[in-house]
Amino acid sequence: MPDPALSQALREAYAAAPADTVILHTLEIWHPTFTEPIRVVRDHADLLARLEMGAPRGGGQKVTFIALAFDLDLPPVDTAPVPEITVTLDNVGQEIVDALEAAAISQDKIDIIYRPYLSTDLDGPHMDPPITLTLSEVEADTLRVTGRARMLDVGNKAFPSITYTAKRFLAWPDRRLAMHWASALIGLPWSVHGSGPDTFNCWEFVRTVQRNQFGRELPEIGNPEDILVMGRTFRDHPERQRWVKVPDPLEGDCVLLRQSRHPIHVGVWLDVDAGGVLHCCQDSGVVFQRPDALRLNGWAIEGHYRFIGDA
User: Fold this and answer.
1) What are the beta bridge partners of residue 133?
2) Rounded mean pLDDT of the chain?
């Protein structure tokens, strides 16, 4: 099990996201009708990690957490007498859907245990004891399971005392970012037609940053809500002639991002904490992410592009 110093290590990982450390968020779902717990990790690969000694099932043992996309939205301290959260599991298999549907109609509660691990130390979770939730109001289909959950003791947790949302998981800003001009932009919301200064879509955000920080005027792009048009525009727009693809990015370079075959998203490279992308995305607004955090949230870098001006 981790000693108390490693709880501090987790705090530091949230604050700085060092290049060699990834925070791995896990859930264990249990119901008396299950033959074994459902254990999942928010990652692209399965995780073998050791449970805390006091775990209700398999204490001190190494267990496998199955890779699965999920959101766990925890409330901040003292937001309600009995805080409620929403748990969403995406791209679940039919076996999990069937198990949760059967459990939801029974008289017994469904328990969820949240455990954070550090990729550099899998010998125990870095919150001990972990947070235990009671799941209710489960809705399931062939791709997604959503449930409401309550916990009676979250307000007494000394750590973490922040709101755990997809937005929080995305940001993980470095301490040095606080002194960077980008710090004033972190957290601004996304809007499909947003062009600043209070809301942005991804392209208008890049236009604003390039204009205000680097003195470059980029053209408007119409129909930002149409992903197909956006993808074709990134591929074919004459603006691409003013940018050249480079292997090693520098501050201010544009970064094209994709979630499938073609890029549909763009951000700006910052030389902070070994480098990362400042971008405005639909679920989280303006965030700064290093490449490993981008991958965990489904983004692949298509390429880095440097401004060369008109030929």
Assistant:
1) 112
2) 75
Kindly report whether the global pTM for this prediction surpasses the value 0.70: no
Residue 256: name the closest of 305, 290, 185, 291 by CA: 305
CA distance 74 to 77: 9
In angstroms, rounded to a whole number, what is the distance separating the alpha carbons of residues 47 and 208?
40
Residue 170: pLDDT over 50: no
What's the pLDDT tens digit per position in 197-222? 889 988 999 999 999 999 999 988 76
| HEC-encoded secondary structure of the chain | CCCHHHHHHHHHHHHHCCCCCCEEEEEEEECCCCCCCEEEECCCCCEEEECCCCCCCCCCCEEEEEECCEEEECCCCCCCCCCEEEEEEECCCHHHHHHHHHHHCCCCCEEEEEEEEECCECCCCCCCCCEEEEEEEEEECCCEEEEEEECCCHHHCCCCCCCCCHHHHHHCCCHHHHHCHHHHCCCCCECCCCECCCCECHHHHHHHHHHHHHCCCCCCCCCCCCHHHHHHHHHHCHHHHHEEEECCCCCCCEEEEECCCCEEEEEEEECCCCCEEEEEECCCEEEEECHHHHHHCCCEEEEEEEECCCC
Is residue 224 within 8 Å of residue 232, measured between CB atoms? no
User: What residues pair up with 198 in beta bridges, in sequence order?
Assistant: none
pLDDT in tens, 116-138: 888 888 999 988 788 887 776 67
